[in-house]
Automatic annotation (TrEMBL):
<dbReference type="InterPro" id="IPR009467">
    <property type="entry name" value="Glycolipid-bd_prot_put"/>
</dbReference>
<protein>
    <submittedName>
        <fullName>Glycolipid-binding domain-containing protein</fullName>
    </submittedName>
</protein>
<dbReference type="Pfam" id="PF06475">
    <property type="entry name" value="Glycolipid_bind"/>
</dbReference>
């Protein structure tokens, strides 16, 4: 497989921030490196790196918030067991295959690509949810339903939040209503 590199950019619905991400995909998986800035409703400046294996399972996550100098770094074998940067087992994340970083719609690409569900099918998952700017990590149950070839319904299973997300042919978010829109990189 050839190495493919994509530059992606999103703006939040508030219009007061920007994300720029570079995604590199090859036969061994994917690496995404992004920078997100925002001022509303909370100011933050975050860099992240997410490494995904060839099955689109999250293997490594580093989220660094520069305003407060807080950092989250964790690893997974890809089967729902996470460890912190100092090797502690993060039992609260058991069963989480994907990471969901609240500041970026890139996170939604992970289950879209990994699950490979057909139109009309649904899948329930658990994610390692990284709340930015709080810089906390919790398990978050979610459901993805493929409504059309390019539309997925995201549902939080522990709240009433849901959105119909439009993706491109590679599963990268184009429109996340009320939260993010992709713009030219």
């Amino acid at each position: 497989m050839v190495t493919v590199t994509r530059s992606l950019a999103w703006v939040p619905a508030s219009g007061t921030g920007l994300e720029e991400t570079t995604v590199t995909i090859d036969a061994s998986g994917c690496v995404a490196v992004g920078h997100v800035t925002a001022t509303d409703p909370h100011a933050f400046d975050v860099y992240y790196r997410v490494e995904i294996d060839e099955l689109w399972r999250t293997r490594y996550v580093c989220v660094s918030e520069t305003v407060t100098s807080r950092c989250i770094e964790m690893r997974s074998a890809g089967e729902g067991r996470w460890t912190s940067d100092d090797g502690r087992l993060l039992r609260q994340l058991d069963a989480a295959i994907d990471v969901d970083i609240s500041a970026t719609p890139f996170s939604n690409t992970l289950p879209v690509r990994r699950l490979g569900i057909g139109v009309g099918e649904s899948a329930d998952i658990v994610t390692a949810y990284v709340d930015v700017p709080a810089m906390t990590v919790t398990a978050d149950p979610q459901r993805y339903t493929r409504l059309l070839s390019d539309v997925y319904r995201y549902q939080s299973l522990d709240s009433d939040f849901r959105r119909d997300i439009v993706v491109d042919e590679q599963g990268f978010v184009l429109e996340y209503p009320g939260l993010f829109s992709r713009v030219p990189a």
